[in-house]
Amino acid sequence: MAESNFVDYVKIYCRSGKGGRGSSHFRREKYIPKGGPDGGDGGRGGHVYLQGNRNYWTLLHLKYERHIMATNGENGGAKRSTGKDGEDRIIEVPCGTVVYDADTGEFICDVTKDGERVMLLKGGRGGLGNFNFKTSTNQAPRYAQPGEPALERRVILQLKLLADVGLVGFPNAGKSTLLSVVSAAKPKIANYPFTTLEPNLGIVSYRDNRSFVMADIPGIIEGASEGKGLGLRFLRHIERNSLLLFMIPADTDDIRKEYEILHNELVKYNPELLDKRRVLAITKSDMLDEELIEALSQDLPEGIPFVFISSITGLGITELKDLLWKELNEESFHEAERIVHKNIDINSLEFEDEEDEYVFPIDEDEEDPDEEYEAYWDDDAEDDRK
Questions:
Q1: CA neighbours within 13 Å on the CB side: how many for 347?
Q2: β-strands 243-249, 165-168 pairing
Q3: Binding site for GTP: what residues are annotated?
Q4: Which of 73, 150, 154, 221 is 20 to 30 A from 234 (CA-CA)?
């Protein structure tokens, strides 16, 4: 994976901006000996947002920028001048990115649409200037509010590919070969296990200029839900697929048993996958005659649509496309697209280094020793400031 540009999870450190402090300034002008308080409010700190961008397909750009920090709000000034707000930081991520807390593994949010924006950390509010505390009994307040502190958080971003059809099968089941035949994708194909080390997407053309997206997921073996093989590394991508296409070679000793192993691994990983629609494709069927195909059809899993195909000779490819399109357009189909994200085990993920463990100190403003600050927030004086 070190040579690949496909990065589907990364840990980053985020920090919002600190709110600027309010000013405790007094009006000083010629011939106005008692001008009164005119200290302005501090500006708010910058927010940290996540935004979906359909032009990204990997989290590679965040692998080398793992410290995202918004700027602080500026302090208030004289003549009721409000400090400048801090600059927001927008983290652009591919559609299908899920965010988890890096310390607890708790699910935070999900970004699935292009242009969708989610606030990850809110900037601190700016402090109120002493002008806001002027009353009939306290006409010369010599105090103001400090800005709210910045918020910081370590998060894990995981990419779960968005596709209509996901290919599920053991290594060397013919998944990459099928994708190369029905689409313009060029995945690596070789006669040894785990040829595919990263998911591949392809656009499958259908009749009347229609199309759907197919995803080639690296091979699954028994025990993948416990971390064996490529394990949890790529099982997460199957959660995003609307329809699962199970692929089992025709020369398998027991097709039903192999299907049950694959199905059980998916359910162990996430029980929500049980609600997804499934289709079974028996690959490498060019070695079978009609009699064998009829015999094998009698022992296939019940209730699952199936088709015998051969990516080499083109046997059953058209029938497979028709079946997939029919299943994708079932009336009850979209009910299964809903995904419930569970919390993750952060110990199951490996990171190349831990440089992001460094905690950046939050810069503190040099306070004027002649100024005093309120240690609380007066919501009445704030007048619903944002």
A1: 1
A2: parallel
A3: 169-176, 194-198, 216-219, 283-286, 310-312
A4: 154
Q: Read off the DSSP letter of residue 292.
A: H
pTM, 2 dp: 0.71
Please indicate, yes or no, if residue 263 is contained in any of the structural domains: yes
Domain with 202, as residue range(s), is 165-337
Phi then psi for 52, rounded to 5 degrees?
A: -75, 140
At 111, give phi and psi (nearest 5°): -115, 115
CB atoms within 10 A of CB 370: 7
Please list, in sequence order, all residues whose beta carbon lies within 8 angstroms of the beta carbon of residue 301, skipping any fewer than 6 positions away. 256, 259, 260, 280
**Residue ranges in the chain whose pLDDT is less than 50:** 1-3, 332-337, 355-356, 366-371, 374-386
By the 10 Å C-beta count (0-12 exposed, 13-18 middle, 19+ buried), 283 is classed as: buried
Question: What are the structure tokens assigned to 299, written together?
Answer: 């022992």
Distance between CA atoms of residues 194 and 270, nearest Å: 23
- Separation in Å, CA 334 to CA 112, 242, 244: 15, 8, 13
Same domain, residue pair 33 and 182 = no
- Across the beta sheet with 48-52, what order do the strands follow? 89-93, 48-52, 117-121
CA distance 56 to 7: 11
Distances (CA, A) of 289 to 200, 250, 300, 307, 315: 32, 11, 17, 14, 12
Amino acid at 23: S
| Residues annotated in a binding site for Mg(2+) | 176, 196
Q: Structural domain tally of the chain?
A: 2
Predicted confidence at residue 205, as pLDDT, reads: 87
Tabulate helix, strand, coil % of the chain (nearest 5): 25, 20, 55
CA 207/CA 318 separation, integer angstroms = 10
One domain for residues 142 and 263: no
- pLDDT value for 328: 84
Q: Are 89 and 50 in contact (CB under 8 A)?
A: no
Residues 323, 274 within the same domain: yes
Residues 261 and 228 placed together within one structural domain of the fold: yes
